[in-house]
Design goal:
InterPro entries: HTH_17 (IPR041657), SinI_DNA-bd (IPR010093). The protein is α+β, with helices and mostly antiparallel strands. It contains four helices and three strands, in the order αβααββα. The protein starts with 9 loop residues before the first helix and ends with a helix.
Length: 79
């Protein structure tokens, strides 16, 4: 019988563990801006341009905490 082996990097494992410890919440622009340490106008502009993951509901922007965590994680890797 064969053995299934999965090869993953330490970075992938750290990301998986961190992702599991984050609550999946929907944030308003104010909360998302605090998390990203930027202004509300900046995060709204970046969401409009498709840089930061977000969804516009009516006139307000909403952001997934998990999606923002992944965005930040990928940004750190690309630096």
């Amino acid at each position: 019988m064969g053995t299934n082996l999965a090869l993953v990097s330490l970075d992938d494992l750290e990301l998986l563990v961190a992702k599991q410890s984050i609550k999946n919440e929907v944030w308003k622009a104010e909360e998302a801006a605090k998390y990203l340490k930027c202004s509300q106008s900046q995060i709204k502009k970046q969401a409009t341009e498709g840089i930061v993951p977000g969804v516009k509901v009516g006139t307000e922007w909403r952001f997934s905490s998990i999606a923002l965590f992944e965005y930040v994680s990928k940004s750190k890797v690309n630096k």
